[in-house]
Here is the input.
Amino acid sequence: MQYRRLGRSGLQVSVLSLGSWVTYHNQVDVAAAREMLAAAMDAGVNFFDNAEVYALGKSETVMGEAIKALNWPRLNYVVSTKFYWGLSRDGNTVNRKDTLNRKYLMQAIDGSLQRMGLDFIDLVYCHRPDPHTPIDETVWAMSDMISQGKALYWGTSEWSAADIRAAWDIAERHHLHKPVMEQPQYNVFCRKRVEVEYARLYEDIGLGLTTWSPLASGLLTGKYRNGIPEGSRGSVKGMDFLLKGLTDEPKNAAVSKLEAVASELGCSLSQLAIAWTAHNPRVSTVITGASKLSQLQDNMGAVAVLEKLTPEIMAKINDATATLAD
Here is the structure.
């Protein structure tokens, strides 16, 4: 396993990490989570990603119970969560709309700590931008989480470069804790935000990246070339919004071309796609997902593929996918 600094911070995270979106609670119970977390740790993974909204809080509970059962030293692992959508929209709830206001954020961190059974969470993210709350209010609240010892680093997810820079400038001006990392989608079909929009932020403010969806929600495994297989992410209730992308004919044709490249390297399509994402030195860690142990083990094999990504191989991948990327 390789380890990279999270932006300009001193924290080092494994280049491959394990996330819980879709899988935890829905497909993975505490016993299965414990098994996969242990296998990931054995493979060198030290970062485990979560979010308040995943399975409406149950994903945090599953991960927290599994980590407690494993009894790892707290220094040995990094966990995250993300805030924005909240858990309750019923009755007289104050925050019935997506928000990053101070009231919501200061209560959200307490809920996550309780569900995960932790004294602090290493990384906390603003899960999406909130155009209805002043950025300075959000920056103060996130900085206060760190000052109170409830979190160690904060960042954003799917924010524009302009908003990230605005948040950083506010923190700089008021001597607050600055945003350290961003969590964007990044894969061979989704490139422009990471490679173009954020380009200046890496040097200007030292932005780190914890990227998600290296397999484009499973498209880059090749399993969707003939429709939606039973038991796949595309068949999970509530994931209907993924279907159009998963069955995209030009992209699936490109996946077939990538299969030839993977065969040349002696690896799986998944390993090739994950290794491509990790090949970008701006990426601190690539968040992988798995609903069963065999998937996790295959994903971890991407580390060995990294060193095989020569300029010639990268050119072949680019030729097959670049015109389809956004």
Observations:
- Residues 249-265 form the longest helix (17 residues).
- The chain has a mean pLDDT of 92.
- The longest strand covers residues 78-83.
